[in-house]
Design goal:
By secondary structure, the chain is mainly α. Helix content is 56%, strand content 12%. Helix 2 packs across helix 4 and helix 3 packs across helix 4. The longest helix has 13 residues, at 46-58.
Length: 118
């Protein structure tokens, strides 16, 4: 990921409503939410929400898909992963004890089930 894309992504999230939208869409994965539902849940006028969704979309943080008369928005988790990886790459300069608390905080809330052959 390039500096310019990370800056665009962070700038898009550097506004309260857009940050709320993105967090809401992350919580709605994998199904996403229609634009009207996003506006309703966050109590934002539809035309204002359209602008926020456009900014997040141009930043590459969300994707949209049309279903009949409705547009469903989804968080682009791969884009989020790329931004976070860019920010954290070489965060500890080879000193694992510095990164350990941060990595523990980033551990998913829903750990994957690991199967072992007994």
């Amino acid at each position: 990921m390039e500096n310019e894309q990370v800056i665009l992504s962070l700038a898009a999230l550097a506004q309260s409503t857009r940050l709320d939208v993105f967090r809401l869409l992350v919580s709605a994965e994998p199904d996403g939410l229609p634009a009207g539902e996003v506006a309703r849940r966050l109590e934002v006028p539809h035309n204002t929400m359209s602008s926020h969704l456009g900014i997040l979309s141009r930043a590459g943080l969300i994707r949209s898909e049309r279903f009949s008369r409705s547009i469903v928005y989804r968080a682009d988790l791969d884009a989020l992963r790329s931004v976070v990886a860019f920010l954290l790459k070489d965060c500890c300069g080879g000193r694992a004890e510095i990164c350990a608390p941060l990595l523990a905080e980033l551990t998913p809330c829903c750990p994957s089930k690991v199967t072992t052959d007994a």
